[in-house]
Amino acid sequence: MKKYAGQVKEAAGELWEEALVGVGEMYFGIQRPRQGNPLLDMMGSMFGGGMGGAGGQKQGAKRIGQTGAPVAEGLD
């Protein structure tokens, strides 16, 4: 493990995270994680949940293969 420590540190950056998110989105139908709005969630829970923040939304399970062909972002 010590032998590859330099390469692991290089790969553990934001670029690597973006690549993994892209692969998950293109090939497995996993949506990009979205940051919730805590104020909107709090107001929604106070007033009966009618505002519908990102944290309160439930998403059904997606099956692999139900989406169309993957769209490659950033390719010419």
Question: Can you describe this structure?
Answer:
The protein is built from 3 helices and no strands. The protein has a domain at 1-34. It is mainly alpha-helical and 76 residues long. The protein starts with a helix and ends in a 30-residue tail after the last helix. It is flat, with a radius of gyration of 18 Å. It has helices at 5-11, 14-28, 38-46.
| Straight-line N-to-C gap | 37 Å
Number of helices: 3
Question: β content, as a range?
Answer: under 5%
Helix content: 40-55%
The chain-level mean pLDDT equals 71
Spans with pLDDT under 50 lasting ≥5 residues? none
Task: Determine Rg (CA atoms, Å).
Answer: 18 Å
Fill in the keyword field for this structure:
about 80 residues, about 0% strand, TPR-like_helical_dom_sf, GET4
Question: Quick gist of this model?
Answer:
This protein has three helices and no strands. It has 76 residues and is an all-alpha fold.
Record the SSE blueprint.
Blueprint: H1 5-11, H2 14-28, H3 38-46
